[in-house]
Write a structure and sequence with these properties.
- The protein is mostly helical.
- The protein has one domain.
- Helix content is about 65%, strand content about 0%.
- The protein is globular.
- It starts with 6 loop residues before the first helix and ends with a helix.
Length: about 240
């Protein structure tokens, strides 16, 4: 069962309240959830992650009250939404844009739900960066929004800077910032840190902590960026 087939039944079947639960209620009746097929990760985490990214992505978009196809298509391209599910994703997106609750309410609910699962909060932020740069640019307003989300997730300014570094244009990337290390790091420490980053961001690891399999774009692109940064440093150091 795909994540898109789990959304509506989740409101009744899982203990998800707050603004995320309210959005799920708004699409109730459009899907049938299969509770016997949850082998691809914790269902509650998957649903909260998915709706959280859609809702925060909507809040990041222009608050004009009406969903546009450009905004929905950006989400579709990043997260591989099947054509048959687009109308339901658009419904959640539009409901989130019209919701009186600010982005803070969604961010704080995710922070509470994923307490102790810090990497999953980072995955949410990575997903939002993917949506923000879908038009090949990270605008100042989007960056300010993402910094606010990161703050409510409990991420430090340094952690946010490292995540942001992976999403600027390749020509502007500092490979040390991409890897989250200082230029003074030793070769042995660099190798160890690099291996850990690759292991932590393997698609299987993401799914184990609650990222749906439909969102592996996050892991694939992130690992590619990490590999490029490491290779650049290794060449410069003659490793």
């Amino acid at each position: 069962m795909s994540i898109w087939g789990k959304l509506a039944g989740a409101a009744a079947g899982l203990a998800i309240g707050g603004p995320i639960g309210a959005l799920l209620g708004g699409v109730a009746g459009h899907y049938v959830i299969d509770r016997d097929k949850e082998e691809d990760g914790p269902a509650e985490n998957q649903v909260a992650f998915t709706v959280g990214v859609i809702a925060l992505g909507a809040k990041m978009a222009k608050a004009d009250g009406v969903v546009t196809m450009d905004e929905v298509n950006a989400f579709k391209e990043v997260f591989k939404v099947p054509d048959g599910e687009m109308k339901n994703v658009a419904r959640v997106f539009n409901l989130a844009k019209q919701d009186v609750a600010g982005y803070e309410a969604y961010a704080e609910q995710l922070a509470t739900m994923f307490k102790g699962n810090r990497k999953l909060l980072e995955d949410v932020l990575e997903g939002l960066f993917h949506i923000a740069k879908a038009d090949d640019a990270l605008h100042p307003g989007e960056e300010k929004f993402l910094a606010g989300v990161a703050k409510r997730f409990g991420l430090t300014d340094t952690e946010f800077a490292y995540i942001k570094a992976r999403h600027v244009t390749a020509a502007k990337r500092n490979p040390y910032d991409v890897l989250g290390v200082k230029p003074s790091v030793s070769n042995d420490e660099l190798k160890s840190h690099y291996r850990r980053l690759v292991a932590e961001n393997h698609p299987d690891k993401l799914m184990a902590r609650g990222v749906p399999k439909e969102f592996v774009t996050i892991a694939t692109e992130k690992v590619a960026t990490i590999n490029e940064a490491y290779d650049q440093i290794a060449r410069e150091r003659g490793m």
